[in-house]
Amino acid sequence: MFRKTSPCFGLLLLLAVDFSLATRLAVDVGPDTWLGRGARSRGSRGADTGDLLTILFGDARRMFANHFFVEADVYFHSGYYPSIFDQQARPKDASHMAGEHGENEEQEHEKAMDFLGKPKDWIDRFGRNFFVTEHMHLGGGTEREILPWLRISASLDPQRIETYTVAAYWLRARLGKVKEAEQFLREGLRANPDSSEILFELGKLYYENYKDVQHARNLFQLALRKWTARNADQPAKAALFQFEQIMTHLARLEEDQGNYREAADYLENLLTHDATPNPEIIRRQIEELKQKADASPPSPAPAVKPHGK
Amino acid sequence: MNKILALAGVVIKELYRRKDFYVLFILTALITLVMGAANFFNDTNIVRYLIEICLLLIWISALAIAIGTAARQIPAERENRTIFPLLAKPVTRAHLLVGKFLGCWLACGIALVVFYTFLAIVSGAREHQWPVVHYFQALWLHWMCLAVVVGLVLWGSVIFSAPSANATICLIVVVGILLLGRHLNVVALRQAEPLSSILYTVYFVIPHLEWFDVRDLIIHGQGLVAWPAVLLASLYAATYTATFLLMAWLVFRRKALNV
User: Fold this and answer.
1) pLDDT for B127-137, tens place per residue?
2) Which A residues, 58 through 87, put their C-beta within 8 Å of a C-beta on chain B?
3) Residue A57 shares a structural domain with residue A148
4) Residue at B257 is within a domain
5) Rounded distance between C-alpha atoms, residue B182 and residue A268, angstroms
6) What is this structure's pTM?
7) Contact at 8 Å (CB) between B73 and B118?
8) A88 and A218 share a domain?
9) What is the total count of domains within chain A?
């Protein structure tokens, strides 16, 4: 009896030992050890909890996350996208995907996306019948198609902040899914508690969608504090763009509430930090706000004072 | 012709007697349905990712079936020594090759019909649209592509010593063409001579299988491919298939059959 069952018994025993060792190792020599202390200090929730994706992929998950983020961009362009052989035409950031661009940027984007050029030979010419050759962006509700890739990208790399802000933009601004956008942003905030970008996006959601002014003001001001803490020395150009965004939104909020003096103070911060490409326009707006402040009765001060020099 | 059809019939029977097709279909269906059950931001209208995953699995499965079936046809006949009684009948080596090709190609066609019907049902149930003509065009081009692949593998099966080596090499070549074929001219232009000329020659010689891969058009809801282009592409595939079969016959007609 023992002889007959011994191979199966042995196999089961080995499987049980394997499973025990694997689960034990996942706890003892967990992702913290694999990713190093850096991952923990970055507030890596995924790494701290030792989730399955981290255990399976390690740091490679960031590479996969990037791939899926690019896949969302491919969907956004309806399949018309430069390959690795047209690297110079690849979009440098995701701002075009989040709809945050003016006319100039749109023209530049159009120019950059004309990567196919004229057909080089008859094979190239005929082959263009069989793939997407027209540059277009998703619209009319089909933007939802990019969401699965962003969701997967966020699952693989919870520290990729852009994923949360881009997905939240489409969810709340185009698809009317404000609750889902808020949930996703909060998920991002749990993984990146110091992210001024996510706080700013949450502030916009509260201001533009929920019309909750006090909550939005608090979120914008918290985003500003986080930005200041991170960029205390010499802020980069991209960081200054975010500073401009926070300040202009705070100014707009205060102006809408009739707090013209505070709104002007926020805009003056833009000039002080040299954070606007159009200082003349900002100066004119400040003047207008000051005139409005002089003309209107004094309003109650906001909860937190504007960011100083 | 009857001899060729009889030989083809045997290959088709082999497809439904073997487990390969069932396993690949069940895996495709299972993965697609599991992915379809995923909830993304409570939006039940998201469908393109599902079509992309399903089409990718269909392409992988179809290539596995085509290469796997074609690679073992002639070596198996030789190994089992059934090729001798077969050729003792009034069946020439050309008949054998064409019959094997037709059988493999029709078997792939049957498999594709099942796979694409499943895709149409899954996507139709989700987005409530039935772009039957688009799916038919994709299926047809896919089938034409597999004709070239089967021809290539049959040629390989009379050159290489083992079916495994043939299958592996053909798989690498086919996947390589599918991934790089379209860009080879761009790469060639960036190289110095003589590499540039060599690469450009390769670009003109290889069968451009990537033409037949219209997954992106289906996934992103683009229009149909112009029918004249489909017809020309089908002629292109037929020419390459005939070329591969002719080369296979040239090798096979003088080949010793004993293992």
Assistant:
1) 888 889 999 99
2) 75, 78-79, 83, 85-86
3) yes
4) no
5) 54
6) 0.81
7) no
8) no
9) 2
